[in-house]
Design a protein that fits this description.
The structure holds 2 protein chains of 2 kinds. Chain A contains 33 helices and 9 strands. Chain B is mainly β. Chain B has 5 helices and 13 strands. A 13-stranded antiparallel beta sheet of chain B has the order 6-5-4-3-2-1-13-12-11-10-9-8-7.
């Protein structure tokens, strides 16, 4: 039946090639029009199942809060310079808009628009940035600082404000120190508490430096004000502990799924950075975060696609030209493929309506897959024409002999893809549907339109009076000899296949999966390098998790639970600005007491030489406290606290290193008179400032939501102001899956609603595993049933599948042997290998059934040549992906190239041997 | 579990193996606990921790234990920076003091420090000084037998008693059938019993004073993805240790 249909179509195509082509072109134009409506979805959330609660929550947050994505400007250099750089850059970044970015235009489209007088008007500029965070809102903090301090800490510190003169102040600091840090090991028990300790030590160090400078006669009111603020309020900037790196967090006004705006904002900010760097010679700055990473990924993938598809096309063209000794063959195959791809696009628009990140490269993949059908038909057509057959005979015979294989091959490949539609993940389901439709379209076009193209070409040549030249057929005679040799000694070659398979099974058992997603990005990418640097310096990864709270009580519960997690570096929450009413009530008496102490405390008293021993005693006590704190940090493995303690109190293992306290003590001893005078001046300068600052901080009035500055509220609330966002920054690299698993597991215990790219990525992997298991099982069953139906023989169906199974084992073994790992991107190639790998065996067996017994040599020589050519062209297409800078694509290219090659080799080794063995037994 | 218990989940002793096959969960734990909590012990140990900056840091210290692990004293020997500093844990780590040799000061640590990490390690103070906690704080059930670390082991589940204030909801313990040494202990979170927090692995069992003793103990922290290695360099069991050694005064005096 199938054979009769193929022959009938062969006759129609050879008699009416023009009508067939016109019909196909008309259909293609229609499909092209429909394809124009295709939507591109780039959100990662679109990859997960539509009903996945985490994806739904993520999408909701994306819709309601733009703070779900960010850019980070990383500024490095001397402290003063990086602060000045940030101060200059931040307001400029806040004003950037779409009008400042010129989208690169396609010159052809621009020329056409110009000619047609339909030049596009530029849309009104849109602001690209909502906010830039790089320092705390100090005004609010100054007014409410003590209400934000825990009651226990207030109880410890209240003594500090009884008398602000140097000796009593230092005595109180020592008392407080011993209560807070030395006696209470919990004070350093987690990351945020360790950071708080470092901030306090930093302020203390600055204060001691101020005393040393004052003894040297260098003291001023402005300097004293700065030191008071550092001691009481800490550092307002997002700056590293060594003060060499500063962060600017840019919150966009768009979400990360808006690719054009990602590119625009990243490029505008980068140009501002480049320009500012010129004015600050000691400063270097760069961009990272979800937005720049998204932009880099898009830019590199687009460039890679252009490069690899161009190289792929050139290689295929060259291979065709070399194999068929004719230029028309690749052109006709390419034309055929274009029709197939456009028809597929139209079908996708009609059925799915969109392409996502994975399916958007379907055309490139179809280039590798769809060309195969043409190869089989053109190879046979040329063979018959070369033998002197007439056009119609050549067309019908090539369709009769290759058509069955092409249809079965196409159907099995399409089924392998279509079974992916049982997947729960939308991206895999989409890929299955798109690739399945694509393969079917290319197969149908090859069967129905390609013969018409071949005939039309010959008629065109004849009309121009050109004499038909018989194509010089490249025989690949060695294939025939190889087929004869293998089928002649089947046991030997089957043993060889078993040996190779055993070796590759052993190799495959060592194969590993690279769980680090950042390893998929191009090498040397600044945004990735900076991300690693931020993790190292700030113990903070820019890829955060998110959760929303309906009220402050829920936000407090989540915040408190999250910040104690060992995998969490920082929690950004509104609740830091507004403690619970009960907690505020507990704090109020201490704040009032501090205010009373402050009003009762006297003014600055001149420091006499006689007071210096008492001062020295407090400095010695402070040194002891810092030494003990440093020792506990050293044995506790808290490097930053230890380093700060050493900075102030000196290196315990080096007697010559006295730190800031050593310098101060030296200055005190050197000139007692100057010390007393200088420190008296210092007291006069700082005391009124300190009193005024603490008086403002000691505000006992309860903080209400309405008191919060709009800027802070906007950072956390959604547009309806009925829910607030809490962002949780991990302290490790979330693209290291082992860390990600711990981070996600710990977050789940905090709140079930937690979402964000890191936990979603983990979910996605779980879905992928489940889908992979389901789809593989189903694919094997469906392909087997299809082959059984096609061959009407279980034996032949199993024989056709065997090279695929063996080829897949060889592929994994070879990957391990050449040091390749499985990655998140290249595992997507596994279903393709099932679809592609099955074809070689199907074609070989079909031809064998047509040629009959004793014709193994002929089958391997003829069909073997075609499957070698299809394998080589497919390998060339996929191999071109190895040139991609985006390492994920390169890993996909590597897997597919090895996989296609392995399936071809296993087919030509195993099938002739099996057929030879079978024939021998029958004989 | 006392330091010496970890040291020798270590400390397996002269145990009659007769009728071992019919032992119940509580009986196995009792035998294991008897071995783990020797009356007194003295050891030189090496501990390697991972710092917050990702570096490995190794400490050598002397440790003394009395009253079946209820009293513990550890005094640092290396590196030179901490030589002479010491930690004293009394009442099964309910009371903890730190001594700093250079300042010659003793500091009492907060009582809740017991659930915190010991000196940056993956052991908590509670892990190090828990005396008869296996019996007093947990109900034990024998789950079956299983091979672990190449040894036939009893597998037991220890569930926290409602009145206990221990930090773990339950433990799963693998006890070697041959000598009742605890070879592996899994610790599960107090609030989320499904959450596997840590795993203790004891290996390199050697005879010390006639007692088979695991000389290499590793605590794997699943939450932080860190691990702490403890190795016994020297050990003596049944040593005479004066009571005044386990006092604030004793803490200050080098032994």
């Amino acid at each position: 039946m199938r054979e009769r249909l193929l022959i009938a179509w062969g006759r129609i195509a050879s008699r009416y090639p023009g009508r067939v082509i016109i019909g196909a072109v008309a259909l293609t134009i229609l499909a092209g029009v429909m394809a124009g409506k295709l939507e591109i979805k780039t959100s990662f959330a679109d990859s997960l199942p539509a009903n996945d609660p985490m994806a739904l929550e993520f999408q909701r947050i994306l819709d309601e809060y733009t703070s779900s994505s960010n850019s980070m400007v990383v500024i490095k250099g001397p402290e003063a310079d990086i602060k000045a750089f940030a101060e200059e850059l931040a307001p400029r970044i806040e004003r950037i808009d779409t009008g400042m970015w010129q989208k690169p235009k396609n010159p052809l489209v621009a020329w056409l628009r110009h000619k047609l007088g339909r030049e596009q008007e530029a849309p009104p500029p849109e602001l690209l940035v909502k906010r830039v965070d790089y320092k705390l809102d100090m005004d609010f903090i100054r007014r409410h600082a003590l209400m934000l301090v825990k009651a226990r800490d207030l109880a410890n510190m209240q003594g500090m404000y009884k008398d602000l003169n140097l000796v009593p102040l230092l005595t109180a600091i020592n008392d407080n120190f011993e209560r807070t840090y030395v006696y209470d090991e919990e004070s350093l028990s987690n990351k945020s508490k360790e950071n708080e300790a470092v901030v306090f030590l930093d302020g203390l160090g600055q204060w001691l430096d101020g005393m040393t400078a004052a003894i040297g006669g260098q003291s001023s009111k402005a300097d004293a004000r700065r030191r008071v603020e550092r001691l009481l309020l800490g550092q307002p900037y997002l700056i590293s502990h060594d003060k060499q790196m500063l962060l600017l967090i840019v919150e966009p006004s768009f979400s990360v799924v808006d690719v054009n705006k990602c590119i625009a904002s990243t490029e505008i900010i980068q140009s501002m950075i480049d320009e500012a760097e010129g004015r600050y010679p000691g400063v270097t700055a760069g961009l990272t975060g979800t937005v720049p990473l998204g932009r880099d990924e898009m830019v590199y993938v687009t460039a890679d696609m252009k490069l690899t598809s161009s190289v792929g096309i050139i290689l295929v063209f060259a291979l065709f030209a070399l194999s068929f000794r004719m230029w028309a063959a690749p052109l006709l195959a390419a034309l055929n493929l274009v029709l197939g791809i456009v028809l597929t696009s139209g079908l996708i628009a009609l059925t799915l309506g969109y392409l996502d990140l994975g399916t958007s490269m379907f055309a490139v993949i179809l280039l590798g897959l769809g060309i195969d059908f043409s190869v089989h038909i053109i190879a046979l057509y040329n063979e018959f024409r070369g033998q002197g057959a007439k056009i119609e005979v050549a067309v019908t015979e090539s369709l009769r002999r290759a058509g069955a294989g092409v249809i079965t091959g196409g159907l099995t490949t399409a089924c392998a893809f279509l079974t992916l539609m049982v997947s729960s993940t939308r991206s895999i389901r989409g890929m299955g549907a798109v690739m399945g439709m694509g393969v079917l379209c290319c197969m149908l076009v090859s069967i129905m339109v390609l013969p018409a193209f071949l005939v039309w070409r010959e008629k065109l040549l004849a009309r121009r009076g050109k004499k038909y030249q018989r194509p010089s057929i490249v025989e690949f005679a060695f294939l025939g000899r190889l087929g004869g040799e293998i089928s002649g000694r089947p046991a030997l070659y089957l043993l060889l296949a078993v040996g190779l398979t055993a070796f590759f099974i052993y190799q495959a058992s060592h194969s590993e999966f690279d769980y680090n997603y950042l390893n998929m990005e191009p090498k040397g990418l600044e945004s990735v390098a900076l991300q690693h640097e931020i993790i190292k310096v700030f113990d903070l990864s820019p890829d955060f998790a998110m959760v929303t709270a309906r009220d402050l009580a829920e936000a407090r519960r989540i915040t408190e639970a999250a910040k104690d997690l060992p995998t969490v570096s920082m929690v950004n929450s509104l609740t830091y600005y507004i403690p619970s009413p009960q907690e505020q009530a507990r704090r109020r008496p201490y704040i009032k007491q501090i205010a009373e102490y402050l009003s009762a405390s006297g003014g600055a008293r001149a420091l006499r030489q006689a007071d210096l021993p008492a001062l020295a005693e407090q400095l010695r006590r402070l040194e002891d406290n810092l030494y003990e704190m440093g020792q506990m940090a050293f044995t506790g493995g808290q490097d930053k606290v230890d380093a700060k303690c050493q900075e102030i109190a000196g290196d315990p293992e080096d007697d010559a290193s006295g730190g800031k306290l050593g310098l101060l003590n030296d200055a005190l001893v050197r000139d007692r008179g100057a010390s007393a005078r200088g420190l008296s001046v210092f007291q006069e300068h700082y005391l009124p400032v300190m009193r005024q600052t603490v008086a403002r901080m000691a505000n006992p009035v309860a903080i209400e939501l309405a008191d919060l500055p709009e800027r802070i509220k906007r950072q956390f609330f959604n547009d309806r102001a009925d829910q607030m966002l809490i962002t949780i920054y991990p302290k490790g690299n979330v693209w290291d899956v082992e860390f990600l698993k711990r981070f996600s597991a710990q977050l789940k215990r905090v709140d079930e609603k937690i979402t964000g790219l890191p936990p979603m990525f983990l979910n996605y992997m779980d879905y992928l595993k489940e889908d992979g298991r389901k789809a593989t099982g189903l694919t094997i069953i469906v392909v087997f049933l299809l082959l059984w139906f096609d061959f009407r023989s279980v034996r032949f169906a199993l024989m056709a599948m065997l090279p695929l199974v063996v080829g897949a084992i060889w592929m994994v073994g070879i990957m391990e042997s050449v040091g390749m790992m499985f990655t998140f991107v290249n595992v997507m190639g596994l279903p393709m290998i099932v679809g592609i790998g099955i074809d070689d065996g199907v074609h070989l067996l079909h031809r064998y059934r047509i040629e009959g017994k004793g014709k193994i040599r002929t089958v391997v020589a003829s069909t073997g040549r075609a499957i070698m050519l299809t394998s080589v062209t497919t390998m060339a297409c996929f191999g071109a992906l190895l040139l991609a800078k985006y390492r994920g694509l390169a890993s996909l290219g590597g897997l597919l190239t090895i996989g296609v090659g392995a399936c071809f080799l296993s087919t030509v080794l195993i099938l002739p041997a099996l057929l030879g063995l079978w024939e021998k037994r029958k004989n | 579990m006392s330091r010496q218990s970890i040291v020798a989940g270590v400390l397996a002793g002269v145990v009659s193996l007769a009728g071992a096959g019919e032992l119940s969960g509580p009986e196995i734990i009792k035998k294991m606990n008897e071995l783990m909590n020797q009356d007194s012990a003295e050891a030189k140990m090496k501990m390697t921790i991972q710092t917050s900056g990702g570096q490995l840091r190794t400490f050598l210290y002397h440790t003394y234990s009395k009253d079946r692990g209820a009293k513990n004293l550890m005094r640092y020997l290396k590196p030179s920076r901490v030589k002479g500093d010491a930690i004293l844990m009394l009442n099964n780590a309910d009371d903890i003091w730190a001594y700093f040799r250079r300042t010659n000061r003793v500091r009492k640590l907060a009582s809740h420090a017991k659930k915190r990490k010991l000196e940056g390690s993956d052991f908590s103070y509670e892990d190090m000084g828990s005396g008869d906690a296996f019996i007093e704080d947990y109900e034990s059930v024998l789950l079956g037998e299983e091979k672990m670390q190449g040894e036939r082991c009893y597998k037991l589940e220890l569930t926290k008693k409602p009145e206990s204030d221990r930090s773990y909801s339950h433990l799963v313990v693998w006890v070697a059938k041959s000598n009742f040494v605890a070879l592996v202990i899994d610790y599960y979170d107090e609030d989320d019993p499904e959450y596997h927090l840590k795993r203790l692995v004891c290996s390199e069992v050697k005879e010390i004073d006639g007692v088979p003793t695991a000389t290499k103990i590793v605590m794997h922290n699943k939450e932080d993805n860190t691990q702490t290695l403890m190795e016994i360099v020297e050990m003596k069991l049944g040593v005479e240790l004066p009571d005044n050694m386990f006092t604030e005064r004793g803490l200050k005096s080098a032994r």
